[in-house]
UniProtKB/TrEMBL annotation:
Protein's UniProt keywords contain tRNA-binding: no
Limits of the Aspartate/ornithine carbamoyltransferase Asp/Orn-binding domain: 148-301
Aspartate/ornithine carbamoyltransferase carbamoyl-P binding domain span: 2-140
The organism of origin for this protein: Actinophytocola oryzae
Single Gene Ontology MF annotation: amino acid binding
rRNA-binding recorded as keyword: no
Record lineage: Bacteria, Bacillati, Actinomycetota, Actinomycetes, Pseudonocardiales
Family to which the UniProt record says this protein belongs: Belongs to the aspartate/ornithine carbamoyltransferase superfamily.
SUPFAM superfamilies reported for this sequence: Aspartate/ornithine carbamoyltransferase
GO biological process, alphabetically ordered: citrulline biosynthetic process; L-arginine biosynthetic process via ornithine
Protein name in UniProt: Ornithine carbamoyltransferase
Keywords tagged on the record: Transferase
Amino acid sequence: MRHLLSISDLDDNDLRHLVRRGAEFSAGTVSPAEPLHGRVVGIYFRKTSTRTRTAFSAGALRLGARIVGFGPDDLQENTGETVEDTAAVLSGMLDVLVARTAGSQAELALFAEQRRMAVVNAMSAAEHPTQALTDLTTMTRRFGDVGGLRVLYVGEGNNTASALALALCRFPDTELHLRTPPGYGLDARFLHEAEVYAKRGGARVVERHDMTDLPPVDVVYTTRWQTTGTTKPDPDWRTVFAPFQVDGAVLDTSPDAVFMHDLPAHRGEEVTAEVLDGRASIAFAQAENKYHSARAVLEWCSG
Ligand code: CP
C-alpha cells in the first residue's frame, strides 16, 4: 500500500516505473489481468472532472476492482466531520481512495495518516501529480524517452505546471521553459525544488514572464486560463493572460514540436482552434493516456 500525494513522494525508480508502466498500458503491451480483483476503490471528487475521474473509475474497474463514488455533497465532512475521522472510517472499508479535494496538501496528508488505505491525489490546489505522470507517459509514447526533451510551458504556473516541473526535471538533460503571465508564475517553492532536481541530472528549468525569444523545443504545452477550483481576484486578469495564447505563430517557432494540453480547453483563449485541432496536437491522445496512466498508478498503489 503506497500513497501518491506529490511527485516529490516518488523516488527516481518509482517515477520512472510509473511513466514506463503507463506507456506500456498505452501501447497495449500489458497482458490483460485483474490485479485489483477483490479490492474496493473510493473515487471522491469535490470538484468537477471529466478525464481524471473517468480514468481512475474505468481503470479500477478494468483492473478488477469495484468502486464507490462520492461527489461534493455526499460525505459527512460537509456537516462537520473531521478529515481524520473520515479517513479512519473509509480506511476500514476501502483499499484505495482517489481524491480531488482541490484543497491543501495538508488535508491530503491527513487522509494519508492511516496505514490501511492508499491515497491518490487527483488534484489539489498545489499539485496535480497524476497529470504529470500522464504527460510524461504521453511524451514517452511519442518520443521513446523523456530524457533530453525540451518543453515550452505557456500559461499559469498552476497545479499542472508544478507537477510537470517536479517530474520533468528529474529526467537527464531535459529543458523546461516556463512562460507564465506576470503575477501568475510557478510557486517559488516548486521552482526551487525543480531547480535542485534539474542540477542533479543536467536538466534546466527557466521561468520568464514574456513571450519573446521563444526557444526551439520538442513540446509546446499549455493549460486553460481558469484552473479548476480557482478564481482570480484581479478583474483584469484576461488582459495579463492575452499575450500568452498559443497560436500558429508560437508553434511556428518550433516547427517540429508537438502540442500538448491537459484539457479541458477553451478554444480562442489559451489556445487557438487551429493549434488544438491541428496536425501537431496530441492533446486527445494525452487525455486518453490519463486512463492508461491511472491503471499504472492504481497497480503501484495497491502493491
Ligand atoms: N486534466 C484534467 O485533470 O482533466 P479533468 O479536470 O477533466 O479531470
